[in-house]
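Methods — Computational structure assignment.
A single polypeptide chain was analysed. Its primary sequence is given first, followed by the predicted tertiary structure written as structure tokens.
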Amino acid sequence: MGIYTLEQTQKIPASIEQVWDFISSPKNLKDITPPHMGFDIITKNLPEKMYRGMIVGYKVSPVLGIKLTWVTEISQVKDLEYFVDEQRIGPYTLWHHQHFIQKIDGGVLMQDIVNYVPPMGILGDIANAIFIKNQLKTIFDFRTKKVIEIFGDFKS
């Protein structure tokens, strides 16, 4: 059973407050998730901003259109700097997703670090090699494009 890491960075031409307002709002998750994932938030009456200890439930279809329940907890939050979401119920044996933002010249650097363990031991390792890691990369690439649509493309 392997522990895998996906890291992605993106420069965004916006203020740190604008980026934080966007990424810390649970309602924006659906907009930055590919439609083929069938992503729906099932938790009712979510607040505008996340907070430490917040539980968010979703329905997702990561494979073959099969709907799964995924429940995450926002385990850490430091306003205008980072938050961490961790899976409590869902398709992975482990899912720990760190979201960092920092001010840079011309905007914000956003960094994601996801540590995950696929389910089913050695079969999960094989599935990761065949499609899981590629699927995660595709999801984050989609998000990158959506963030560019929302905030514009960063000019170095």
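Note: The longest strand covers residues 68-78.
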